[in-house]
Amino acid sequence: MSVWDDFWPIYREALPVLLIALGGGLFAGLVLEGILESVERFPGLLVMVPVFLATRGNVYGALGGRISSGLHQGLIPPRFERSERLVNAVLASFINGIGISVVIGVVTWLALLVIGWEVAALYELVGIMLIAGVLTSVVMIVGLLLLIFAGYKRGYDPDNLVGPIVTTLGDIFGMLFLLLSISLVEAIV
Questions:
Q1: Measured between alpha carbons, how far is 170 from 137 in angstroms, rounded to an integer?
Q2: Which long-range contacts (CB under 8 A, 24 or more apart) does 151-157 make?
């Protein structure tokens, strides 16, 4: 087998998903413009954005890797049915996604307090992160499973899909739900 024979199928499968990821990243940047208005109201908010988006990729990239390996090994069927491996992987990711969101709020608040920068109240930052974390966790899990299962059934290698899918869903919905959670916390406070 030549290098081209190895390269072409990977490129053919990954390029469309990468182009969609590019569009998703641009959309997330547009949503960030909307969040900038809230930076004065919630000092420290902008510090949390890159960390929040990065952790979406870390947590749900790991989930995607587990799903992909399970599909390759025949341990996880490519459909929504009760599978102990699938349920455990999803639960672990859900708990990690929400837990790390709360940690981001607390650590940001502490770090900005220690260096003497102006910072919003702890409950505001944690509230924003908790709401955004719960909402993105649900969408990331459902979206990731739907797209990986659909791609796998159509003959795509899930390893080529996981990275761009996680990045795109994380950026788009992470930013949208951050904007929504900011609005909700503003309305409550």
A1: 9
A2: 152/71, 152/78, 153/78, 156/13, 157/9, 157/10, 157/13
> What pLDDT does residue 79 have?
84
Domains in the chain: boundaries = 3-188
Task: Report pLDDT digits (tens) over 130-150.
Answer: 999 999 999 999 999 998 999
In this prediction, residue 1 has a pLDDT band, given cuts at 50, 70 and 90, of low
| DSSP string of 49-76, one letter each residue | HHHHHHHHHHHHHHHHHHHHHHHHHTSS
CATH class in words for 3-188:
mainly alpha
User: What is the distance between the alpha carbons of residues 178 and 31, in angstroms, rounded to a whole number?
Assistant: 9
**What is the rounded distance in angstroms from the CA atom of residue 100 to the CA atom of residue 106?**
10
More confident residue, 189 or 88: 88
Tokens describing residue 39? 């930076």
